[in-house]
Each structure stands twice: as structure tokens, then as C-alpha cells.
Design goal:
Blueprint (H helix, E strand, L loop, with lengths): L17 E6 L5 E4 L1 H7 L3 H4 L14 H12 L4 E8 L5 E11 L2 E8 L5 H16 L5 H14 L5 H20 L7 H27 L3 H13 L4 H26 L4 H22 L6 H56 L7 H45 L1
Antiparallel strand pairs: 1-2, 1-5, 3-4, 4-5
Helix pairs in contact: 3-5, 4-5, 6-10, 7-9, 7-10, 7-12, 8-9, 8-12, 9-11, 10-11, 11-12
The structure holds flavin mononucleotide.
Length: 397
């Protein structure tokens, strides 16, 4: 039998095909759409009442389903790349979104076409091999799956599944020649800027740490050049006091830089899922129970997205004031440098030590200013994207 990792996909289904199925709490299929029937090769009668593992491909690692069930049983949605097998043994890859609903779960699956799936294939192959030869049990394999995802450069699995779903939707849209889904571009921009601010706030913290030694070095130089209590000693003790205040401010700034990334990421995932649902709904009969469930989920997800955008806007506005405070405090570094330079001009002897301090202050100042500019741009990026999303919502209403 072909395995999922070496064999090309053998079943053909189209980009616009979206699979839908609903199960009870044990994973027994209770309803499904025509696409699932056609591609799986089973009749509707064979599918309804059968466990969803009917389409399981044996080379899929158990870890993926372990992670799936632990998420959905806790009421969380999950997205994963899954290779399935049709009735006649052919295989097909999908990106599956599985969501808890009243009385069970439902799933929407789309053909995976982005560049993410090939990265996952080698991870799945290694996981499956270790499960088969008994090196890892299922829970160890789940941990290895999460670690493997981090090794691919994602923060964690939730980050991976959100980015993957967005990439799959973008790739699908590009290939179908459709415009970017309304709102999704804005949410992606928000996520990117939130992440950039987290990284850059950490950079501010590290850069500031590099300046902590400066007052001590300055005092040593002052003692050598002018003895105790000369003007450079005074500059250095002022700078030390300022550094202490600044280090507290930097810590506060760093803390406030977390603008609700988790909430925004979850909202992006469910928003994307809602886009898929909206498309599935079009192909369902209005009287179907699924129609109602999907509609309710869409409303719920739209609410979650609106709330996340509102929260991030409020946090970003408050944070933009903190950026201004931080800028003001950083001008203190500039002041020390200028005063040092003025005092340095009064000495004719060996001032290399002082020159080096002035040079280091200038470098820190420039680096910190550059990072602050990046942060301020990201904050503006968030506020603009949020305004556009808000306008789009109002126009749609
Ligand atoms: C809504 C829903 C959709 C699912 N879709 C699939 C699927 O497309 N392919 C699959 O192999 N398993 C799917 N599963 C998981 C299966 O129930 C099952 O856990 C998996 O096939 C592994 O079976 P096993 O634990 O018996 O090996 C789905 C589960 C749910 C609740």
C-alpha cells in the first residue's frame, strides 16, 4: 500500500472542493457533504454511522490524532494536516479544521496547496517510524510532534495551525484567482505587528542591559582623569540614578508590549474557519441541522474576532503613550553623552577611555532609537489595520 510520505497524491479533487463532516462525541460520523462522499469513495450510507477513522491512512502518526482529541475534548478547535485514504486505497492530503459543537464535533477540510505541508511530511514520517518501532508511545509522540513544530520555526502548535490555515486559504485563493478574503489580510497584519512588537520590546530590554555598565566605567575614568567629585563623577552618578529609573521603565514597557497575541491568534484561526464554513453552508440544504450549527459558529466566531480586534486596539493605543514616555527617558542617554563630550574637551591628556564611553553611548542611543522607530511603526500598523477591519465590518453590516 502506498505510504503518505513517498507516494504522490493519487486521488484527484479540486481546489474548490471543501469536505464537511459532523460526528458525535465518539467520532462516529453523523452527517457529511457530497464532496466527502465523492472523494472518499464510500456511499453516504456507508459513511453515516461509521467511525471517522474509516478514512484513516495507516501511515499517519498517532500523535496527530492524540493532539486532535485532547484539544477538541477540552473544547478547543484544532487544525492539522491529515493524509486520508479512499475506499479504493488512494490517498489524499487535506488541512483539517475540527471544532467542538453541541453533541459532538464538526470538521471542514480543504486541499492543502501551500508550502507548509512538505515541511510537515518529513516530521510525520519520523514520528510514524518512532511509533512503529516502539521508540515512543503516543503521549511521547505528541510531545515530539509539538517539539518538531517548534523546530520548524513556529512558537508552538497553536501558532503553527493558525499560520498554516492562513497560508492554505491564501494559496487556495491565489490559485482560484480570487481576491484575498475580506478581513483575513487585516488579521494577518495585526498578528505580524503584535509579534514584531514582542520581539522588538525584548530587543529594547537587551540593548538597555548593555548600557548598565556605562556609569561604573565612567566613574573609573573620572577618578583617573579628575580625582573624586569632579564633573564627570557627577555626570556618572546622575546617569546611574537615571539608569535605575530607566531599567524599571524598560521592564514595565516590556510587560505592556504583550498586546494580546494569544487572543488575536485564536481569533484569526476561528475567523479563517468561519470563512470556510460560509462556503460550506452555501452547499447545504437550509433545513439541515448542520446549516444551523455552522451559522451559530459563524456568529460566535465573528463575535470573538470583533472582541479580539477591540482589545488589541485598546492595548495598542495605551502602548503608544508608553512608547512616547520611553522616548523621553531615552533622551537621558543622549544628555549623558553630550555632557561627557563637553567635559572631555577640557582634558588634553589620554582620554581614550572616556572617548570609548562616549562612543558606546552613541551606539546604544542609535540602536535603541532604531528599535523604538520599528515599534512605533508596528503600533501604527496595528491601529491602521484595526481601523480598516472596523470599517469593513460596518460596511458589511
Ligand atoms: C470531526 C472529526 C473529523 C475527523 N476527521 C478525520 C479524518 O479526516 N481522517 C482521520 O484519519 N481521522 C479523522 N478524525 C479522527 C478519527 O476519529 C480517529 O481518531 C483517527 O482516524 C485515528 O484513529 P485511531 O485512533 O483508531 O487510530 C476525525 C475526528 C473528528 C472528531
Amino acid at each position: 500500500m502506498p505510504n503518505c510520505f513517498d507516494e504522490p497524491e493519487t486521488d484527484r479533487f479540486e481546489l474548490f472542493d471543501l469536505f464537511f463532516s459532523r460526528t458525535d462525541e465518539r467520532g462516529i460520523i453523523r452527517s457529511c457533504n457530497e464532496t466527502f462522499v465523492r472523494v472518499s469513495g464510500y456511499s453516504k450510507e456507508e459513511l453515516i454511522g461509521a467511525p471517522h477513522k474509516l478514512v484513516r491512512h495507516p501511515s499517519m502518526p498517532k500523535a496527530v490524532f492524540g493532539l486532535l482529541w485532547s484539544a477538541i475534548q477540552q473544547g478547543q478547535p484544532l487544525g492539522a494536516y491529515v493524509c486520508n485514504r479512499t475506499k479504493n486505497g488512494r490517498l489524499y492530503w487535506v488541512f483539517a479544521v475540527v471544532l467542538p459543537v453541541e453533541g459532538g464535533y464538526l470538521s471542514v477540510r480543504l486541499k492543502s496547496t501551500s508550502d507548509v505541508q512538505p515541511q510537515v511530511v518529513s516530521l510525520y514520517r519520523a514520528l510514524h517510524a518512532a511509533e512503529e518501532d516502539g521508540t515512543r508511545d503516543v503521549s511521547q509522540s505528541v510531545e515530539a510532534l509539538k517539539e518538531g513544530i517548534v523546530a520548524l520555526g513556529y512558537n508552538h502548535y497553536a501558532d503553527f495551525m493558525t499560520q498554516s490555515l492562513c497560508r492554505e486559504l491564501q494559496s487556495r485563493n491565489d490559485k482560484l484567482g480570487r481576491a484575498l478574503l475580506r478581513g483575513l489580510g487585516g488579521l494577518i497584519t495585526l498578528n505580524l505587528n503584535i509579534r514584531a512588537i514582542e520581539v522588538d520590546a525584548e530587543n529594547v530590554r537587551q540593548l538597555f542591559k548593555e548600557t548598565v555598565q556605562i556609569p561604573y566605567n565612567m566613574r573609573l575614568e573620572a577618578a583617573r582623569l579628575e580625582g573624586a567629585d569632579g564633573p564627570i563623577s557627577v555626570i556618572s552618578s546622575n546617569h546611574q540614578q537615571m539608569s535605575t529609573d530607566l531599567s524599571l521603565a524598560v521592564e514595565r514597557f516590556h510587560k505592556s508590549a504583550g498586546l494580546g497575541g494569544d487572543q488575536m491568534r485564536n481569533a484569526t484561526f476561528v475567523f479563517s474557519a468561519a470563512m470556510l464554513m460560509a462556503e460550506v453552508v452555501k452547499g447545504l440544504e437550509p433545513e439541515a441541522k448542520d446549516f444551523e450549527l455552522l451559522r451559530e459558529l459563524q456568529i460566535d466566531f465573528a463575535g470573538q474576532t470583533e472582541e479580539a480586534v477591540r482589545d488589541v486596539t485598546a492595548r495598542a493605543s495605551a502602548f503608544s503613550c508608553q512608547c512616547k514616555d520611553m522616548r523621553r527617558m531615552l533622551t537621558g542617554l543622549e544628555l549623558t553623552r553630550i555632557m561627557c563630550k563637553i567635559e572631555r574637551a577640557k582634558f588634553t591628556g589620554a582620554t581614550e577611555g572616556l572617548d570609548e564611553i562616549v562612543r558606546r553611548l552613541l551606539i546604544s542611543e542609535r540602536k535603541l532609537s532604531a528599535v523604538m522607530t520599528k515599534i512605533e511603526d508596528s503600533v501604527q500598523g496595528i491601529l491602521q489595520a484595526a481601523t480598516l477591519l472596523h470599517r469593513a465590518e460596518q460596511n458589511a453590516a
